[in-house]
């Protein structure tokens, strides 16, 4: 039998049961789509998120109030910890390996200039923030190194907030009101975009001590320490802990290194990857079972056709190949649809997030389709063998 | 030379702990171009004999010589090839593939043989034309009457130009007129040289054959020759 005729016969029965064939192929399609999506954006997502995290530099250590237990809850809920204060940050600044210390506190407040007002995120920070987080000032200057406990009322605008409040006018030296208190604008930041969901442009930076009183808090959210590259991170952590524990009397704070953050991030990403892989795997399994089921039904339905083909001179192997071919074509159609679906979703993601690198190597496309075809082959064997083994006379009697 | 020779053919079926002798010592010679009817009550072994002649079944013992070749020793695959080349089947219930057009149904045995598209096309056209079905070529079986369906089946059985045409109750699902029609077509094919064997329980139709076999309990109980 010629290949063309073979395919023609196979397709004729697939087309005769369009809906059923489509549903059967769908199982495989979802699985292959998941597989191809994983391979297309898996590495991309990893790199994207890591880059988002490390763009501030890799020599950062974060200190948060409260002791994180292994269960993940902060002891802070029991209210026994001392606040993380501006003085703590100053104490850390005196450590020899420290390049920069940034006290950090955040909240939302209304910012008013002339007659324009806007509710934005307010970041209380220290003068070394641009250095620690590789941020650049576009005009004017960043917060000066005032007395950290009694800084002057200066504010630095994010590029978007500046545009919203002042348009094209020069904001430097202008007076604004933040949460009812008056500040003088001394600088505007370079655009930084959104980092991990935080809009760093639609914001205003003020001294941390002023942010604490603005938000009526006694503890900083975080102290970020940037250390000298040549120093070992363990030495840094030990030094920080010695200083803070001496001040607090106990370890009622948490020190997180960049590496730990990356580890946590990596494990979250791995869970995500695993979940998508599991969905793909289950879907492929369900797809395979669907093919077995549908092919078994087809053999039952077409028993008399099998008898006829045998009477017309079809060999057992031809009958086997016809049914096996049908299973493989079903799976292959599912595979191709899945490839289209997966690549399509990957492309949409890339369009929505241009910085997310998406790459589908041709080899993976070929491998995924080969996987689909193999599933069809494996799933089709048993029903096809049953068809080939039918006794022609009995098969002809079935109606 | 006889096209079919059956020598001491037995076909036993094991049913439970009993053995059914569906064919019991059949000896038969059929010459090329002969017209044979097989009659007899239900269960007398008519279909079993026809299936055996058609190589769909194997004898429990005995020898079957088709076109001078002992086919009892052929493998399944060789039998399939012989079936394709030498034998045409016409069934009571037509056995058309519902999703295929009349032409595609007729084309099936040529496809299975691996014949090229061009060669097939002219053969299918000729077979359909001979049965006055040219204008029905693209119709699906469910768009055809019973008589037309059986004519498609006959076109399919003869498109390979087989030496032997086997028909098991070919008029069983047809009304009287279509039935006579179909018999006329089969007999016309016989006139042009094909060996025709028709199983029927209709005595009137059976009597049209030159040789009439009457079966009973797996044996050829009586044979009548016309003319
Ligand atoms: N596959 C089978 N298994 C068991 N018995 C069978 C089988 N095929 C036929 N028989 C028996 O063989 C006998 C002849 O059957 P068959 O050739 O179909 O009769 P007819 O066509 O004359 O009605 C019957 O008794 C039938 O029950
Ligand atoms: Mg019968």
Overview features:
heterodimer, A: 399 residues, alpha+beta, 2 domains, two-stranded antiparallel ribbon, 12 helices, 12 strands, 55% helix, B: 227 residues, alpha/beta, Rossmann fold, four-stranded antiparallel sheet, 7 helices, 10 strands, binds adenosine-5'-diphosphate, binds magnesium ion
Characterise this structure.
The complex is a heterodimer of chains A (399) and B (227). Chain A has twelve helices and twelve strands. Chain A has 399 residues and is of the alpha+beta class. A six-stranded mixed barrel of chain A has the order 2-3-10-5-7-6. A two-stranded antiparallel sheet of chain A has the order 8-9. The mean pLDDT of chain A is 89. With 227 residues, chain B is of the alpha/beta class. Chain B has one domain (33-59, 75-225): Rossmann fold, CATH 3.40.50. Chain B is built from seven helices and ten strands. In chain B, helix 3 (102-113) packs across helix 4. Chain B is globular, with a radius of gyration of 17 Å. The complex binds adenosine-5'-diphosphate (ADP) and magnesium ion. Magnesium ion binds at residues 46-47 of chain B. Magnesium ion (MG) binds at residues 46-47 of chain B.
């Amino acid at each position: 039998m010629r290949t063309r005729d073979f395919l023609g016969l196979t397709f004729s029965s697939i087309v005769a049961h369009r809906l059923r064939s489509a549903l059967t192929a769908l199982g495989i399609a979802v699985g292959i789509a998941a597989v191809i999506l994983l391979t297309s954006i898996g590495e991309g997502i990893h790199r994207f998120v890591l880059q988002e995290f490390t763009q501030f530099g890799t020599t950062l250590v974060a200190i948060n109030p409260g002791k994180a237990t292994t269960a993940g809850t902060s002891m802070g809920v029991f209210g026994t910890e001392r606040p993380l204060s501006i003085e703590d940050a100053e104490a850390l600044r005196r450590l020899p390996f420290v390049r920069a210390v940034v006290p950090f506190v955040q909240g939302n407040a209304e910012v008013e200039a002339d007659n324009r007002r806007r509710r934005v995120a307010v970041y209380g920070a220290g003068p070394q923030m641009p250095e620690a987080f590789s941020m650049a000032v576009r005009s004017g200057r960043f917060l000066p190194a005032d007395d950290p406990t009694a800084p002057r009322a200066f504010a630095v605008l994010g590029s978007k907030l500046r545009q919203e409040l002042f348009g094209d006018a020069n904001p430097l030296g202008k007076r604004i009101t933040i949460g009812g208190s008056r500040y003088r604008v001394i600088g505007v930041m370079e655009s930084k975009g959104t980092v991990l969901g935080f809009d760093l442009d639609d914001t205003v930076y003020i001294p941390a001590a002023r942010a604490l009183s603005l938000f009526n808090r006694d503890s900083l959210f975080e102290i970020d320490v940037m250390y000298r590259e040549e120093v070992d991170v363990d030495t840094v952590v030990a030094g920080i802990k010695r200083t803070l524990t001496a001040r607090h009397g106990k370890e009622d704070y948490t020190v997180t290194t960049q590496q730990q953050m990356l580890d946590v991030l990596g494990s979250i990403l791995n869970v995500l990857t695993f979940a998508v892989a599991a969905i793909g795997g289950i879907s492929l399994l369900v797809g395979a079972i669907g093919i077995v089921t549908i092919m078994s039904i087809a053999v039952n339905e077409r028993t008399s056709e099998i008898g006829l083909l045998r009477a017309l001179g079809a060999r057992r192997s031809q009958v086997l190949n016809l049914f096996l071919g049908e299973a493989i074509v079903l799976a292959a159609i599912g595979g191709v649809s899945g490839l289209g679906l997966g690549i399509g979703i990957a492309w949409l993601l890339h369009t929505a997030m241009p910085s997310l690198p998406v790459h589908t190597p041709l080899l993976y496309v070929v491998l995924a389709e080969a996987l689909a075809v193999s599933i069809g082959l494996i799933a089709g064997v048993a029903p096809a063998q049953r068809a080939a083994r039918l006794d022609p006379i009995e098969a002809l009697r079935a109606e | 030379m006889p096209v079919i020779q059956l020598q001491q053919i037995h076909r036993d079926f094991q049913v439970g702990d009993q053995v059914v002798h569906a064919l019991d010592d059949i000896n038969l010679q059929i010459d090329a171009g002969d017209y044979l009817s097989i009659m007899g009550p239900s269960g007398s072994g008519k279909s079993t004999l026809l299936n055996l002649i058609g190589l769909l079944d194997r004898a429990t013992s005995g020898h079957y010589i088709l076109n001078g070749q002992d086919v009892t020793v052929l493998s399944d695959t060789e039998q399939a090839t012989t079936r394709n080349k030498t034998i045409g089947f016409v069934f009571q219930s037509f056995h058309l593939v519902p999703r295929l057009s009349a032409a595609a149904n007729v084309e099936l045995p040529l496809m299975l043989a691996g014949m090229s598209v061009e060669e097939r096309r002219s053969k299918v056209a000729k077979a359909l034309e001979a049965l006055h079905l040219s204008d029905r070529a693209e119709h699906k079986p469910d768009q055809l009457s019973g008589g037309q369906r059986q004519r498609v089946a006959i076109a399919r059985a003869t498109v390979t130009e087989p030496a032997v045409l086997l028909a098991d109750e070919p008029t069983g699902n047809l009304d009287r007129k279509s039935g006579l029609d179909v018999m006329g077509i089969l007999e016309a094919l016989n006139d042009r040289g094909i060996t025709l064997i028709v199983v029927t329980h209709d005595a009137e139709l059976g009597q049209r054959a030159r040789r009439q076999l009457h079966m009973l309990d797996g044996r050829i109980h009586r044979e009548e020759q016309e003319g």
